[in-house]
# Entry
Amino acid sequence: PLLRLRGIQSGSDIVIVFLRHRDLILSPVDPTSTLPSRLSRTMVRGIALLAALPAMTAAFVAPAVSTASSKSAAPAFVPMPESDLPSVCASTTGLSAMLSQTELPEKLYIPKEKEMPKVLGGLQIGLRKLVVITGASSGLGAACAETLTKTGRYFVILAVRDVEKMKKVAQDRGFPKGSYLPMKLELGNLQSVRDFVANLKAFKSARPLNNLICNAAVYKPTDPEPAWTDDGFEMSMGVNHLGHFLLVNLLLDDMKKAKNARVCIVGSITGNTNTVGGGLVYPQADLGKLQGLEQGGRNPIAMADGKPFFGAKAYKDAKVCNMMTVSELHRRYHETTGIVFSSMYPGCIAETALFREKRQWFRKLFPLFMKYVTGGYVDEKEAGDRLAQVIDDPQCNKSNVYWSWNGGAQTVGRWSADGKPRGAGGSGGEIFENTQSDAVRDLPTAIKMWEVSAKAVGLSEKEICKDVDPAAL
# Structure
């Protein structure tokens, strides 16, 4: 039953405590109050209970009997008539509604808690090239960062969600001291992207950025319902494509000042329908006519083509947009800025955290399948070396290329004399210029993708790089 605790008073405010189904709620509740998203329900209740403890203690003390005729003191607890309850608590549904008011939706990024900018970065960078890697705290990004920092030729900005985690990863992997700096970046929040760019510019001062590697990605193939970014975009499209789309555009004016600047956006065979993984594995990537993004692409619109949510396809669609973005960047800005824009497929890193949403049996068997059946397997270190090569190797100084190794996964691997499958994009082989699918190279769709993406992320006239190749207009 619902109970009312009488006698609690603070100034002129009466605090009423409702107990039901083991839930503690302090009423009245201010639904506009801001609570740090990291506080759990238990912590919120505990803090509220401690705050109310003095008044609650006083309530349990029976008032003094002033007359002899008084038979007994009023009990601390009395049943509360339902008519006295606030209307929001008149039912279990109402009580749940009140509870939901005390728990604000968890945010990926809280602007008022943004990272303070570092300064005097020029002294740390020295004569080394400056490179930014997104998603550097695990998998491909961490392996690439390790390779680049250990060359001694690069100072690496590790753009990550969790700075403290990144510090530990860098220490565990043996990144040379003084060769890197973790910086906060939440690609699922457009304000965080803008804050990151501001902090980066404050750190490096007049020193231009030489290289940008857009690697971070989320993959949610088993989710029955979409997850949403802070800005209301479906998570795969919002993080993998739109967050990176904004990041690259905000850094173009700076990167054009650097000599031999390069931008690499990591692609995937799953977004290319001319590969085994993209053409034969259901579902195929298909942007349609971009109806979903054209309508803004925000909740409840979950897919680029405006159709119902399909987690595996959402990832593939985002990868198509990644590779189209590279082509459009090249078409619009390569001739006028000299920046080299490219994409790449590193091979199938079957143990990567990208597959953390998959079932346990899949995570155990998938690496064996890719290694001994398809031949697409590559370990994390080799994949990291491949991504670093696209940034570092002189032969990769060519724009609008989709780089691959060992056949590029356009066929199932063929057994070779050394007992390992060849030709499926897996371990070994030399780098080469791969061919993208017709869908990725569809110019009218790519142009429309660029326009609706720019509108979706709110790219302003001030933020747009003005050095557009006249031939691209």
